[in-house]
Amino acid sequence: MSNKSNRTKGILCILLSAFCFSAMSSFINLSGNVPVTQKVFFRNLIALFIAAAALVKNKEKFRPAKGCLKYHIIRSSVGLAGVFGNFYATTKMASTADAAILNKMSPFFTLLFSALFLKEKVKPRQAVAIIIAFIGAMFVIKPTMSNVELFPSMLGFIGGMCAGGAYTCVRHMGNKGENGRFTVFFFSLFSCVVTAPYFIFNFHPMTTQQWIYLLLVGVSAAGGQFSITAAYTFAPSSEISIYDYSNVVFTAISGYFFLGGQVPDLWSFAGYFIICAMAVWMFLYNNKEYRLKKS
Known about the structure:
- It is a single chain.
- The chain is an all-alpha fold.
- 79% of the residues lie in helices and 0% in strands.
- The protein is built from 12 helices and no strands.
- It starts with a helix and ends with a helix.
- 47% of the residues are buried.
């Protein structure tokens, strides 16, 4: 199969992933006043069953690759913290698109953490992109005491940072030959085990509609996870990662039409532009570097 065909499949998969995660954000909000921990439990429960079924179908082992267990634990701990940050921001911020763009800081943090912990070299242009993207995030967060959304927006930013740490662990385990399906399974199982006690002993009664929305949160999250995993099996991140930022567009559209006409303010739009511009710049730069290596 041609590289062009694989690249097209990768783009379609990553767009599907962005759409799924956008739908997840909408369902999180539509589920109403359910505690964040309860929402997180449902987010991972569906993915757990789907990941387990995928391992069984492919006759793969339910155990980590050699030397990867500690990284699974770190990835799951940091990743779960990232999910909590993202869910809290999505639930409490007036614009779900703001929460989405803060979560999209994760690629920049992945670059930073890869340099710190995996000793991967950060080139000057990448360092500049990280700094400017951070400034863009400040436009969204608006770190002043008059901002009533300062706390949830900061948690959303920390969620993006934690996601970057989790992806760094995934990258390291991938270099060790770890199976991506098992990584999803371990994270989902870890998250369910951690949040289950709260779900059991502090269960918040839900209406039928809320049950449906939270199940759809889990289905959407699973669709997003497996779609983005498939995307990177078809094409390298340097060629397709930029399309993941379509999630912000999908989220803004759904926020306007399905969540009471949400419209981000001008400061947020400025932040979106800055962060997305840096993502495009990095995409073009990485793509150029990749093509030079291939030639």
